[in-house]
Amino acid sequence: MKNMIDVRCKMLRYIHLKKLKRRLKNKNFTIICNNCLGGFIYHDLGCQFLSPTINLFFSTDDFILFVKDLKYYLNCKLVKYIDKTKNYPLGKLKSKDKNHKDIILNFQHYKNFNEAKEKWETRCKRINFKNICIIMEFYDDVYDEKLLYDFQEIPYKSKIIITHKPYNNIENTFAVSCYENNMPRGKLFEINKKTGKRYLDDFDYVSFINNIENN
Description:
- The chain is of the alpha/beta class.
- Helix content is 32%, strand content 17%.
- The strands form three sheets. A four-stranded parallel beta sheet has the order 1-5-6-7, with helices on one face. The protein has a three-stranded antiparallel beta sheet with strand order 2-3-4.
């Protein structure tokens, strides 16, 4: 029975991905995101990673600072950062002045800092600033809701916050359904065996990408 369910799921997923790729009209896009979300979107659409924010995560407050002054931080030196409580490599975008704070990058899917730095620097060069969007997943059980309002101030027209519950009074938010029963983090990227879709697919990111506005 389990094998039959898995086969059916694979078939549904194949059909779903084929439809997504057929609908995608905007191919040369950059997603800047605070966690692995962007990497999953690029992978499922069969597109090149035109973003350095792949296989890593930021704290929400650091991410908002990062995208508020994106070009500044992309030109900051990435240095190794040590936190003995973490079992994966970390990096720090070292501020060049007193008006900006350092930003910590959590490279949880890399073997070591050197590998992460090489990928970061290579993908920074691919960014398409004329075709860029910002996507942030927000953990309401960890961070202050004030950050949702701070996100609205970032200087990009195409931006969205994926939330775990509705925030009807805040612009640029989309609530996913998979966290209704306090599901663990990362549920967004799992595949629903009944549909062959990721829970992330509640959000029509293909339409969002096709309609990216120039800044």
